[in-house]
Write a structure and sequence with these properties.
The chain is globular. It has helices at about 10-35, 35-60, 65-80, 100-120, 130-150, 155-185, 185-195, 195-205, 215-230. By secondary structure, the chain is mainly α.
Amino acid sequence: LPASTPARSDILWGAATGVAGAFSLLLFYRALATGRMSVVAPIAAATGDVVSVLIGLFLGERPGPLATTGLVLAVVAVVLIGQEGGALGATPSGRGLADPSVLLALAAGVAIGAFLACLHRTSAAAGVWPLVAARAVSGGLLLALALLTRRPLRMAADTLRIVAAAGVIDMMANVCYLVAVHGGLLSIVATLASLYPATTILLARGVLRERVRAVQLAGLTTAALAIALITAG
């Protein structure tokens, strides 16, 4: 941190990242509360990826043919991996895009895409200071909302330990993404980051011994092919 020299624009982009991050969390968890994770998670991840790719293209990025094919397959992989049960893309209400949880998931995905794009706009010379600004802004916004809505802030000790561990892992992931996006195209890095549901499925299978459905295995295979094409392109 001491060797980093963030410009004013880096801090501002970091603050914008924090705003997008706060909204993405609120919208995503609200979507989970009103819908199924197997529907909400892939929609949010795929939408965030598509938004990031579109922003990258708008900024002048032009991935090669192999990488472009990989980008398309990555979106397909995310949708397949997210299928935990029931018909593909089914919603509890059967209303499709009119379902509130689907609309919330789409909005969360847009916010996630904005989060990824805002971090891309920071400079490598800023180090992790944009993330510090982002966490300060998002934490402040969420705390203010909790106080305004009079939500309880106290947690049990076991829950607090889990939350703290999740926070550390989340910050490490953000740092890795920040380093990666400063060295590559937003459309490529954001797409690879959006394949995180594959890790969740593998951990569920290896650690929790959960059964992986055939459609999810197809998604994992598609994700591996997408990564290979993106890397080769």
